[in-house]
Amino acid sequence: MKNWEETLVYPEATIIEALGVIDRGAMRVALVVGRDRTLLGVVTDGDVRRGILRKCSLNDSVTAVMNTRPVTAELADSKEYLLALMQAHGLVHVPILDEAGRVVMLETLEALSRPGPRDNWVVLMAGGLGKRLAPLTEVCPKPLLRIGSKPILEIILESFIQAGFSRFFLSVNYMKDMIRKYFEDGSRWGVQIEYLEEESRLGTAGSLTLLPQVPEKPFFVMNGDLLTRINFSHVLDFHQKHEASATMCVRKVEEVIPYGVVDLEHHRLVRVVEKPVNSYFVNAGIYLLDPKVLSLIPKGRYFDMTDLFRQIFDARMTATAFPFLDYWLDVGRMGDFQQACQDYPKVFEP
Description:
Blueprint (H helix, E strand, L loop, with lengths): L7 E2 L5 H10 L5 E4 L5 E5 L1 H9 L19 E2 L4 H11 L3 E5 L5 E6 H5 L4 E8 L20 E2 L2 E2 H11 L2 E8 L3 H8 L8 E6 L5 H4 L12 E5 L2 E3 L3 H10 L4 E11 L3 E6 L2 E7 L2 E13 L15 H10 L4 E6 L3 E3 L3 H14 L3
Parallel strand pairs: 1-2, 4-5, 7-10, 7-12, 10-11, 14-18
Antiparallel strand pairs: 2-3, 5-6, 8-9, 12-17, 13-19, 14-17, 15-16
């Protein structure tokens, strides 16, 4: 959490000094406290503006503009209660007080809305040759091709981090040293990154046999050349609710046939449908697997995720599909890469 103590000011502070605290801090508030940290009032830039309209001088005491009846909460209050309290009053922060009315912390809507840490593993497949993106991939592995200001794989990594995931495995083969050099151990992002090094190409499921141990919880597997805004936490909740052994994320695709399609009975014309639209679900390259399915994967040979799902079907394990409509793009061809570069500022940048 950001240093909330930097928001504290004493009653003798001037309005302009309090405004400096508000402007410098990320929390956009000043808490006026006594020497024992008893909360006396709260000041926002809105309070300052209203004070100026009342002809207050910027050199007046901050007590002239502070809100003396702010909404507060106690340490024992739950996260759910705090969220409801902020939403009911339209607040982005609430001072937390002890029994004596002293400030012990400042809770923010941003911190409360942030997803909690997830200890599920994430495996990102980054070993492909990317032949369809040549000549770009002749000097750079596809996961390191930049979309906007960042490599594709970094955008994927940060999407998982934002959802609370912190332990990652990168399955690498082609130009693996470049990928290792860029991501290293993940400390730059505050996460742990390890590498699954394929001596020969093992496919999207075969490299899972290189995991150092069997994970304790369901884990994600995702192709390292996808851009998506799918909610990973929703996928995990869906998987657990349905007690699935494997979940495949599927994306609805619509295809327009640019002709009038006809139905025939022998030589007789029965119907003409002009430019019909066919819709179907496709494998989106994002999976959530229960650890027990790892026993179905043969070691040392090429084995794709579709092969694994066939084994899951044969073993009569529960496989589910998670359909989603969020942004998704498989960056497989040059046209896709160009489309991704156009989409990135609109979809991924604030």
